[in-house]
Amino acid sequence: MRKYNFCAGPAALPEPVLQQAQLELMDWRGLGCSVMEVSHRSPEFVEVAERAEQDLRDLLKVPDNYKVLFLQGGATGQFSAIPWNLFGAGSKQADFIHSGQWAAKAIKEARRYGDVNVVATSEDRNFSYVPAQNSWQQSEGAAYLHYTPNETIGGIEFDYVPEVDCPLVADMSSNILSCPIDVEKFGVIYAGAQKNIGPSGIAVALVRDDLLDRAMKDIPRSLSWKVAADAGSMDNTPPTFAWYLSGLVFQWLKAQGGVEAMAQQAAKKSSLLYEFLDGSDFFSSPVEKSSRSRMNVPFVLADERLDKPFLQEAEAAGLLSLKGHRSVGGMRASLYNAVPFEAVKALVAFMADFEARKG
């Protein structure tokens, strides 16, 4: 029996997608073999790739002057690719908003190739809030400004898009496809797949055309957006199964009503959990209310000695992967698109029962 999976990533996938992949695993499209066993350059797989791109363009309303790239290396690979691709047009300085551990990783990697100016940080309160834009100290002539709209570990989410003069780069790994976005406000949007797109092993990048010629001249070929764009994301053999599954997720999202419907579901799911936390003396959220993520909800128990029993009983009740990130402890429920509302109802019911018995 399927259980409710609250893992932060690799995360839950829609059941209809898994069922379709199961049906097609041994004999895809009547070819007598799996999609994993055909050439990525075959007409059949090229059709899969083209449809996945078009469906993603439709879902996010991606303008024609943006390339949609399917890349390897996950979002972490893009921490390196971004400075390599954007530090070649003169400026080798980048502005960053330091909002948590994933922003920190991106900052650390960018410093290998140029100068980093941290325009704002929420480190003073353990990354429990989103820095207001009026507190920023931006630099002149920056090659780009990078931020992480949703921090998976800390559970904070920006409720605004930064307004900047340089290209805006966003790591949307954990909130892409969860609400409509105005792509034209960004120079680059990138995301690891294993949260709201598909399985691990592939990343998506939306890159505005005018940024494809800003790479450093000695950029590694495998990190070049221009090389990937010119080759249709097939300069080398891509992770075909992850690409195929991501395409199935895009089709599922369209059938559900698109990102508008996902935004409504995200609000409904997260509100239910936050309302319970705010009404409890036993559980609490460490994140400021105005900065709370709809995708990742960290919470703590009043007595941390009960953490282990809570997790053991939750798993026995079919509620999986609620342990918080090792760096912060506590609990965390990730409520990505594929996590149904019924899962959150079951979680809240379990938490209420646990509190009644242990509080």
TrEMBL record:
GO terms for MF: O-phospho-L-serine:2-oxoglutarate aminotransferase activity
Family annotation (PROSITE patterns): AA_TRANSFER_CLASS_5 (PS00595)
Cofactor(s) the protein needs: pyridoxal 5'-phosphate
Protein location: Cytoplasm
Reactions that this protein is recorded to catalyse: O-phospho-L-serine + 2-oxoglutarate = 3-phosphooxypyruvate + L-glutamate; 4-(phosphooxy)-L-threonine + 2-oxoglutarate = (R)-3-hydroxy-2-oxo-4-phosphooxybutanoate + L-glutamate
Primary enzyme class: transferase
EC number of the protein: 2.6.1.52
Main location: cytoplasm
Cofactor note: Binds 1 pyridoxal phosphate per subunit.
Metabolic or biological pathway, per its Swiss-Prot or TrEMBL entry: Amino-acid biosynthesis; L-serine biosynthesis; L-serine from 3-phospho-D-glycerate: step 2/3; Cofactor biosynthesis; pyridoxine 5'-phosphate biosynthesis; pyridoxine 5'-phosphate from D-erythrose 4-phosphate: step 3/5
Domain of life: Bacteria
Keywords: Amino-acid biosynthesis, Aminotransferase, Cytoplasm, Pyridoxal phosphate, Pyridoxine biosynthesis, Serine biosynthesis, Transferase
Modified residues (N6-(pyridoxal phosphate)lysine): K195
Annotated positions binding L-glutamate: R41
Residues binding pyridoxal 5'-phosphate, per UniProt: A75, T76, W102, T152, D171, Q194, N236, T237
Domain Aminotransferase class V: 4-347
Pfam families: Aminotran_5
Protein family according to the UniProt entry: Belongs to the class-V pyridoxal-phosphate-dependent aminotransferase family. SerC subfamily.
Function: Catalyzes the reversible conversion of 3-phosphohydroxypyruvate to phosphoserine and of 3-hydroxy-2-oxo-4-phosphonooxybutanoate to phosphohydroxythreonine.
Subunit relationships: Homodimer.
Protein name as annotated: Phosphoserine aminotransferase
Organism, as annotated: Microbulbifer variabilis
